[in-house]
Automatic annotation (TrEMBL):
<keyword id="KW-0804">Transcription</keyword>
<keyword id="KW-0805">Transcription regulation</keyword>
<dbReference type="InterPro" id="IPR036388">
    <property type="entry name" value="WH-like_DNA-bd_sf"/>
</dbReference>
<dbReference type="InterPro" id="IPR043129">
    <property type="entry name" value="ATPase_NBD"/>
</dbReference>
<keyword id="KW-0119">Carbohydrate metabolism</keyword>
<dbReference type="GO" id="GO:0006355">
    <property type="term" value="P:regulation of DNA-templated transcription"/>
</dbReference>
<dbReference type="InterPro" id="IPR036390">
    <property type="entry name" value="WH_DNA-bd_sf"/>
</dbReference>
<dbReference type="GO" id="GO:0003677">
    <property type="term" value="F:DNA binding"/>
</dbReference>
<protein>
    <submittedName>
        <fullName>Transcriptional regulator</fullName>
    </submittedName>
</protein>
<dbReference type="GO" id="GO:0006351">
    <property type="term" value="P:DNA-templated transcription"/>
</dbReference>
<dbReference type="Pfam" id="PF00480">
    <property type="entry name" value="ROK"/>
</dbReference>
<dbReference type="InterPro" id="IPR000600">
    <property type="entry name" value="ROK"/>
</dbReference>
<comment type="similarity">
    <text>Belongs to the ROK (NagC/XylR) family.</text>
</comment>
<keyword id="KW-0238">DNA-binding</keyword>
Length: 248
């Protein structure tokens, strides 16, 4: 619930209201301005201003809504504009790096899978930045507004601060502030997560375990590991702790 009289700094109020309206459009779209005003509990004038700014920023777009059984001119609805914004997903594994440019609906724009040597005279972070730069150069005609970079990899990771304490296969990765390095280099927000934890979350949100409150996902490839969701929340989220499995 968001109210116009919400206390606090005026800029924070505007940001909070805009965030609430965007989430409603994402969840309910296409949705009319009248319904947005009712669901967000904001005055129609506030909705008009927020929506106008979002349209100018290419965050949302207008579309026609034809109610079942209705006659006359279709109403104007709002929906998230997913194609105007992109994010880069990076998956690092043994000897390989996978880069994929996606829009906000997660639709694939372009992807590449490249070799990433386990041992090299060039430092790991420098090689990663070179790969990202070259990827953007090769596909600059397809790139719209880059909003974030998401990185998944094995290892011991401080996800909150974007620090890679240890990573298998790449011996020079030790206590590396990779999130900060990438963010400073690209100028966008960077999110880093353990690869199995990210996979477990993705399955819970969009895949085979969607809707389940308690999930254990076991992965066996170059490494053996597991991701756990308990009561709808990822276990050890935001920490460097890992779920370990084994046998006797």
């Amino acid at each position: 619930m968001v109210a116009d009289s919400q206390p606090g700094h005026i800029d924070q109020i505007k940001q909070t209201n805009a965030g609430a309206v965007y989430r409603l459009i994402d969840q309910l779209g296409p949705v009319s301005r009248i319904d947005l005003s009712r669901f967000a509990q904001l005055a129609p004038a506030s909705i008009t201003k927020i929506v106008r700014e979002m349209l100018e920023a290419h965050l949302v777009q207008e579309t026609e809504i034809q109610e079942p059984g209705s006659r006359g001119r279709p109403a104007v609805g709002l929906m998230v504009e997913t194609e105007a914004w992109h994010y880069l997903s990076i998956r690092i594994s043994r000897g390989e790096i996978h880069l994929a440019l996606r829009d906000l609906s997660s639709a694939l724009v372009v992807e590449e899978q490249l070799e990433l040597a386990l041992q090299h005279v060039q430092p790991f972070a420098s090689r990663l930045l070179d790969q990202v730069d070259q990827f953007f150069i090769r596909h600059q005609k397809k790139l719209e507004r880059l909003t974030a970079i998401a990185v998944t990899m094995p290892g011991i990771i401080d996800t909150e601060h974007g620090i890679i304490h240890r990573m298998p296969f790449y011996e020079d990765v030790k206590d590396m502030p990779l999130g900060e390095i990438l963010a400073n280099h690209t100028g966008v927000s960077v999110y880093i997560q353990h690869d199995i934890s990210a996979w477990t979350m993705a399955e819970s949100l969009f895949g085979a375990s969607r809707g389940a409150r308690d999930v254990i996902q076991v992965v066996i490839d170059h490494n053996v590991g597991a991701g756990v969701i308990t009561d709808g929340r990822l276990l050890h989220a935001g920490s460097s702790s890992l779920v370990e499995i084994g046998h006797t």
